[in-house]
User: Fold this.
Amino acid sequence: MLFRSQAMEDYSEISKNLRKEAIEALLNYEIWWTYRDPDIAPMYTDILNRHSTFFTTSKNAHFVAMVLPLYRIFETRKDSINLPRLLRKLRDDGILPVIQLDELDKQYQKLKPAWLKIATLRNEVFGHRSGDLTVEESFKKAQISSNDISKFIDEILILLNKVDSQLNPDSYQSFQVNSGDELKQILTILKNAQTGK
Assistant:
């Protein structure tokens, strides 16, 4: 029983690390999307144009900082912390009932096609630069929209919460973050400073 308890703690730690990756992706997504949001960005056009080098670089950096953790969560390396490895170890070690693991695997498989699109961006644009395709061609090949990415992140968080709640029933966490709101506050401060308000 002591061994099983220790194993549960180890798996909970892995799950917690994966959730941190997903939250990192979400925080960066919210900032990146705020720059692009057609309902928000036009309100700050003057500020964004006035400091265009910084804000263009920031927008691109947040996109990359979103793609990389999304890639890491689903990568299939046997020597890194990733969801496929966690699910496989939970099954191999008999940590959770088979019926629960089957449901988690089913949800993982449902998310895998979106991850393959993220992997295209990571492998051909950000982690490596394809010698066969331009950046634009790699994005076209990936065929993933901002809505697809948002939904993918939401579904990852739901899946990771399920994994964690089955390992530790008292561990449910809400993923309410507001990095986009914080960017809007910064842009508003800059806009008000520019107009003298």
